[in-house]
Amino acid sequence: MSAALSVRGLVKEYVPGRPVLRGIDLDFAARGITAVIGPSGTGKSTLIRCINRLVEPTAGTVTLNDIEITTLGRGELRRARRRMGMIFQEYALVERLSVMENVLSGRLGTIGFWKSFFRKFPQSDIDEAFRLLARVGLDHMADKRADELSGGQRQRVGICRALIQNPELLLVDEPTASLDPKTSRQIMRLIKELCAERGLAAIINIHDVMLAQMFAERIVGLRLGEIVYDGPPAGLTAETLTRIYGEEDWSATIRKADADEDDETPGTVITLDVQPRRDRMAGLT
Predict the structure, then answer these.
(1) I need a labelling partner for 86 at 20 to 30 A (CA). Which of 36, 152, 193, 228 fits?
(2) Pairing mode, strands 218-223 and 32-37
């Protein structure tokens, strides 16, 4: 399969002469989940954010299919970013707005200034938002304020907001960092299922090695801004983890990951017997 995303010679220096990323070369296929792991401060989040230029690379190129992201002007970059859905560690929701309004904010770049200013969305967008919320089990909470939600619920809203863009690629920055272990698994399983259903590629920056082994098809290990491992989860041996993170007894981590994978059952689609309250959304059309 040809690469959907190509990263070549990517360098990022926040301080001149002190690179955080040191000439990263990576290709990503049009489908599948890649987990980026490594110690704190090794450039994982910077890599994700350089891809959609939330952080400006110092050197190198990023190409999504036929578009070289790193050469685009402001207007072209806005259009290109619609092809890349972003899911944030801290959710990045507007807490005073409803769940529905936060999901629909993923369409702001497509409906024009005045409609976006007054939050007037086409019925087709509202219908799609309800479908996405139903898929993640939150359609009954469409009119709740975002600040009433739990961490796991907020992350599900963030996933819906990214998917309503109809992206070609998901960029996911530490989606489980603020969640408990059970909710972390649920969120990772949901991302994996949605990517499979929609034929999407996802690049996930994640600290939890076991979650990366359980839910990703490919692991990229960074250390000091360089790639030190690129391969399948099964290749994360004690020797490999030492190369990524440094000396440690990794045997328990590897055994635990194997056991968890054996116990893992296929995820199920969440459905609720709740009729969406579309009448409450009348002000959004």
Answers:
(1) 228
(2) parallel
Question: CA-to-CA distance for 57 and 71, rounded, in angstroms?
Answer: 11
Residue 252 confidence (pLDDT): 62
Q: Is the pLDDT of residue 189 over 60?
A: yes
Q: In 10 A of CB 66, how many CB atoms?
A: 5
Counting Cα atoms < 13 Å in the Cβ hemisphere of 94 gives 11
Dihedral (Cα; 183, 149, 40, 10), 10-degree rounding: 100
Find the range with the poorest average confidence among 104-118, 218-232, 247-261. 247-261
Cα–Cα distance for residue pair 213/267, rounded to 1 Å: 16
CB-CB neighbours of 214 under 10 Å: 20
Mean pLDDT taken over the chain: 84
